[in-house]
TrEMBL record:
Protein name in UniProt: T-complex protein 1 subunit epsilon
Residue ranges that the Swiss-Prot or TrEMBL entry lists as coiled coil: none
Superkingdom of the source species: Eukaryota
GO molecular function: ATP binding; ATP hydrolysis activity; ATP-dependent protein folding chaperone; unfolded protein binding
Keywords of the record: ATP-binding, Chaperone, Cytoplasm, Nucleotide-binding
Cross-referenced Gene3D superfamilies: GroEL, GroEL-like equatorial domain, TCP-1-like chaperonin intermediate domain
Primary residence: cytoplasm
Protein family according to the UniProt entry: Belongs to the TCP-1 chaperonin family.
GO annotation, cellular component aspect: chaperonin-containing T-complex
Protein's UniProt keywords contain Chaperone: yes
Cellular location(s): Cytoplasm
Taxonomic source organism: Pristionchus mayeri
Origin organism lineage: Eukaryota, Metazoa, Ecdysozoa, Nematoda, Chromadorea
Length: 553
């Protein structure tokens, strides 16, 4: 007993987290410090708590699924309002406190980072899997058995998707536009869906290398300006920057332009060490002014001698330099951001010049046309650089009634571009409207009958979870969800047609191929894999310790 007491004393003294106390009979027991400040959940109670939190998040997202899905308004603590239908944005802006709910947020982010689309569906599917798992737990099935069964069912679903997938002609622009329209169908921009789908496809094809199946999104710039209509949105084969000529009397339009791209400031050089300049008389001040003027003159001469007809400067310059630039007929733009500088260099085939002494004719970029555009009755102006030698760099210029609409249009276009990019990388497709999920559900249900172990219950639960996607689509479209899904399942089995889905837009046919509702195979497979992985992780957590104040949220 003495050896035990000594070892316990030593152990917890080192850890500094407990106190050893003896009762009246001399028996030792340990009091853990700050035990009263922690809340502990264990076993099935912990798992059910997690399922409840995850389902709450999934139920929030459920009504945003599909072409008839509703938008969410999210208000930040600063009062910034976001109205969106995009799953990743909703999850990111939600003020989530629960630790498991944060896992669902990360799930949506993972889908967005890897695929760019399907962020709502993956959360809804994970919520449905957890809801089914809760019923299995109530029947006394061990969480590990449920997780293993889900893994097996997911594998069977992925094999089914591979078998059902069709090849897609990436070179066919019209078919690509149809796919982009599927992504844009549930967005706020769906009243001009064809125009936005064409912009998404053309912008991706402009920067895509079909030989290597690579798409460089960095060459696509999105710029927005409040005003006008969504229909005024356009794709510019060039770069638009939210800047103007530095002097109001500089020309508003230049043709056959040679561009000097400068990251050095138009100002006299400064010592690198700490210094102080004493100006004691008017003569000293005049000398300083003359020196500054001579320096500006030298810099402008270097730019002019190189053959440049437009100077784009990353830094600002004062009114003196601005006046001299105008006097020497050298148009200039100041405070151009770093990303824009890089895009302009790529588009014009120019080199970024860090020092005036290094500026040569070979480092100049070229553009056929540089012009200022104005908007409405305001003084807002922007600069457009067009007819560039490298036409791979493009700008999507979005107009809208307010900032919220422009931001949502940007998110919608990004999702559509991601769909087109995924098709360029992997040209296999499945059909939307819940058709792919229902086809997987039918196949997994067949395999469940062949399994002798307890995992067959998890298989059937996986089937019910897959059916939650077409059920949510039907519910959001104002249809009777249970009747619609039951009829759809019967039709798929009777006709042996995996292309049948929910007629959410009431077009009179359930054939998603005829309705041209197309989804990328890679997106659907990623949804199933990510949702199953997260559910497996949640089911295997059986002990949680959190501070009391955090648990009360």
């Amino acid at each position: 007993l003495q050896e035990l007491v000594y070892s316990l004393k030593h152990k917890f003294k080192m850890a500094g987290q407990a106190q050893l106390i003896f009762d009246e009979y001399g028996q030792p027991f340990i009091v853990m410090r700050e035990q009263d400040k922690q809340k502990r959940l264990t076993g099935v109670e912990a798992i059910k708590s997690h399922i409840l939190a995850a389902r709450a998040v999934a139920n929030t997202m459920r009504t945003s699924l599909g072409p008839r899905g509703l938008d969410k308004m999210l208000v930040s603590p600063d009062g910034d309002v976001t109205i969106t239908n995009d799953g990743a944005t909703i999850m990111e802006k939600m003020d989530v406190q629960h630790h498991i709910a944060k896992l669902m947020v990360e799930l949506s982010k993972s889908q967005d980072a890897e695929i760019g689309d399907g962020t709502t569906g993956v959360v809804v599917l994970a919520g449905a899997l957890l809801a089914e798992a809760e019923q299995l737990l109530d029947r006394g099935i061990h969480p590990t058995k449920i997780a293993d069964g889900y893994d097996m069912a997911c594998k069977a679903s992925l094999e089914t998707l591979d078998r059902l997938a069709d090849q897609f002609p990436v070179e066919d622009r019209a078919r690509l536009i149809e796919t982009a329209e599927t992504s844009l169908g549930s967005k706020i921009v769906n009243r001009c869906i064809r125009q936005f789908a064409e912009i998404a496809v053309d912008s991706v094809l402009s920067v895509a290398d079909l030989a290597t199946r690579d798409v460089n999104f960095e060459l696509i710039k999105m710029e927005g300006k409040v005003g006008g209509r969504l229909e005024d949105t356009m794709l510019v084969k060039g770069i638009i920057i939210d800047k103007t000529m530095s002097h109001p009397q500089m020309p508003k339009e230049l043709k056959n332009v040679k561009v000097a791209i400068l990251t050095c400031p138009f100002e006299p050089p400064k010592p690198k060490t700490k210094h102080k300049l004493d100006v004691t008389s008017t003569e000293d001040f005049k000398k300083l002014r003359e020196y500054e003027k001579e320096t500006f003159e030298t810099m402008i001469k270097q730019v002019k001698d190189s053959g440049a007809t437009l100077a784009l400067c990353q830094w600002g310059f004062d009114d003196e330099a601005n006046h001299l630039l105008h006097h020497h007929s050298l148009p200039a733009v100041r405070w151009v951001g770093g990303p824009e500088i890089e895009l302009i260099a790529i588009a014009t085939n120019g080199r970024i010049v860090p020092r005036f002494a290094e500026l040569t004719r070979e480092k100049l970029g070229s553009a056929g046309l540089v012009r200022e555009i104005t908007f409405g009755t305001s003084n807002d102006r922007m600069l457009v650089i067009e007819e560039c030698p490298n036409n791979r760099a493009v700008t999507v210029f979005i107009r809208g009634g307010n900032k919220m609409m422009i931001d949502e249009a940007k998110r919608s276009l990004h999702d559509a571009m991601c769909v087109v990019r995924n098709l360029v990388r992997d040209s296999r497709i499945v059909y939307g409207g819940g058709a792919a999920e229902m086809a997987c559900a039918v196949e997994v249900a067949k395999q469940a009958d062949k399994i002798e172990g307890i995992e067959q219950y998890a298989f059937r639960a996986f089937v019910d979870a897959l059916e939650s996607i077409p059920m949510a689509l039907a519910e959001n479209s104002g249809l009777a969800p249970i009747d619609t899904v039951a009829a759809l399942k019967a039709m798929q089995i009777a006709q042996n047609n995996p292309r049948l889905g929910v007629d959410a837009l009431c077009k009179g046919t359930n054939d998603m191929q005829a309705q041209k509702v197309i989804e990328t195979l890679v997106s659907k497979k990623e949804q199933l894999s990510l949702a199953t992985q997260v559910v497996r992780m949640i089911l295997k957590i059986d002990d949680v310790r959190v501070p009391n104040d955090e648990h009360e949220h």
